[in-house]
Amino acid sequence: MIGTSRRFLRLLTRQHVAGPAGWSVVSRLPVYLMSLAMVLVVREQGGSYAQAGLVSALYTVGMAAGSPVIARRVDRGGRRVVLLTTGVVYPLSLGLLVGATGPAEPAQLALALVAGAALPPANACMRSLWARLPLEDDERELAYLWEALLTELLVIGAPLMLAALMVTGSAGAALTTVAVIGGAGAVGLALTPLPGGVTHQDERADGDRPRALLGPLHDRGMLVLTGVMAAAAVPIGLMTLAIPAFVDIHGTPGRTGLVYACWGIGSALGALWLGRARPGGRPVHQRFPLLLLAYAAGTALPLLAGSELTLAAALALGGAPLALVSAAEMTLVSSLADSRLLTEAFTWASLATVAGEAVGQQAGGLLVDPLGPHGVFAIASGTALLAALGAFACRRLLAGTPEPVMAAGPRRSPPVRKPNP
What we know:
The chain is built from 17 helices and no strands. By secondary structure, it is mostly helical. The protein is globular and about 50 Å long.
């Protein structure tokens, strides 16, 4: 783990990396706590849980509908204008939502939609930058492993940050503070200088962009990858419902958060421990199905649990491959997507994961009572196994190689690997 941490440190302190990587972390703080913060704000205003859920849901709808459009603008017009605009509009809309509206008023609902749509695209921007920065291939894979680890750290740490802010103030003040910090991070990311070749690629003229309606999903490999990613995310949503149901039966409900946190901790430790080995000769499209197979085996471990302690251990051990799967997904996106559509490609990949989790949560809610938590764990494991089998079956497409029965059409430009400074 120490070796992996040192590799991360060497990468993140490199010239032209430290600035965008640091600002991107700051700008992503709101992503992992804003839905919860909105619920707390509406409740603090005197609204019901139904009203709070509606406001939070509209924020999510705005984010889902607006993020592909925002990402396409980044790819066509450059990151700077988009990040500067969203870096101002996002905190402003949330500040107005807190200070100038009441629970579920029409203005509050509209501002929730606007705020979701105006979320700065820091995730997709940074992941597309990793594909363009002058890095070796093993450094690029390490960068995507860092992205996967960062997600786990923010999922665990961002709610703690919100709780700390609420100790000294209201939920509204905490939400506004986090929104302003996120907006400042987006502005910082926009203004951070990049190597000349990267800037040229990032700010290419609009007329030089492909205009297919589906954008990066026009490529069959990308379409297959997003489908596999969505399927692989369904078990996460299923287990999100099964874990608290299990703890209700076999443990103390108040400890659900601690048990659930073991899943993220296991993923983070897995990234540090299993990621210590440098990528070998096996290409990522061949490693990806194997990682999904390990992920499926990990989701089966909770079937052996009989207490909250054994469930926590099963989640920690079974979660070890999660970050590696996520890192492999990002590496595949960077290699499959048209280099001119990378920001949109990473956005669609993220939305596929969110959609898969949402389907899993809905299914888990319907199945946990009739089947019990162990039944839902079994379905989650089976779904993960199907995702792994799908990845094995589509390895040629994930490699960017068309199937033999298909005529080879014009190929896209490959991602820029080592732009000249």
